[in-house]
Design brief:
Blueprint: E1 6-11, H1 18-29, E2 33-35, H2 36-46, H3 49-60, H4 66-77, E3 85-89, H5 95-107, E4 114-119, H6 122-136, H7 143-166, E5 170-174, H8 179-192
Parallel strand pairs: 1-3, 1-4, 2-3, 4-5
Helix pairs in contact: 1-8, 2-3, 4-5, 6-7
The structure holds adenosine monophosphate.
The site of adenosine monophosphate has 17 residues, from α2 and α3.
């Protein structure tokens, strides 16, 4: 059986564990995990021009403008290591970005092959984010920013799932459980689509 190319998106509310699971899945499939949040944070840390442009937006829990975000993702996906697949984490995050990504991937004849939706109840997300705030001291893990990011997720990000559901590529995964349990659920959903290591 030829395996299906792994052009993946992992999506879920902040605190759903998508970053951790995304890295693990990408490593097992030998594809890069592309996290827009990580790209922005690295730039803020290094004090690049991009970092200076986005710092206040990120700290407030708002979204970086689509044009800027989509251009960064396109550049990243054009690099050689993404030629055989990739896992997007945190992008697209609204319908405008879905449109941008569609134009880019359809231009290459390489649409997304699976969208992993990690479901975690809101109360659990908040509890996990508060714990992360205590452990990692992320500037955007304060109460106000957390509330704003979760409400942006519900109003802007959740609707993009309807678009992908219409394409039949969404796998809803229960995100409550140990890291290993959730990972195993994702692996099994992907292999049902022919996406295997
Ligand atoms: P994350 O680590 O995915 O929660 O992202 C952290 C922050 O980076 C978000 O709260 C936004 O300010 C910004 N960000 C990350 N990805 C995007 C995106 N696709 N569009 C706009 N802003 C983003």
């Amino acid at each position: 059986m030829t395996s299906t190319p792994a052009r993946l998106l992992i999506i879920g509310p902040q605190g759903s564990g998508k970053g951790t699971q995304g890295v693990r899945i990408a490593e097992s499939l030998g594809i890069p995990a592309v996290s827009t949040g990580d790209v922005f944070r690295a730039n803020v840390k290094e004090g690049t021009e991009l970092g200076q442009q986005v710092k206040a937006i990120i700290d407030a829990g708002d979204l970086v403008p689509d044009e800027l975000t989509s251009a960064i993702v396109r550049d990243r996906l054009e690099q050689d290591d993404a030629a055989n697949g990739f896992l997007l984490d945190g992008y697209p995050r609204n319908l405008g970005q879905v449109g941008d990504l569609d134009v880019f991937l359809e231009g290459r004849g390489e649409p997304l092959t699976a969208v992993i939706e990690l479901s975690v109840p809101r109360a659990e997300s908040i509890a996990r984010l508060s714990l992360r705030a205590a452990q990692q001291g992320r500037a955007d893990d304060n109460e106000e920013s957390i509330a704003k990011r979760l409400s942006i997720y519900e109003s802007e990000t959740a609707p993009i799932l309807d678009v992908y559901r219409g394409r039949g590529i969404v796998d809803e995964i229960d995100g409550v459980g140990s890291l290993d349990e959730v990972y195993a659920r994702i692996v099994s959903a992907l292999s049902a689509r022919g996406i295997t290591a």
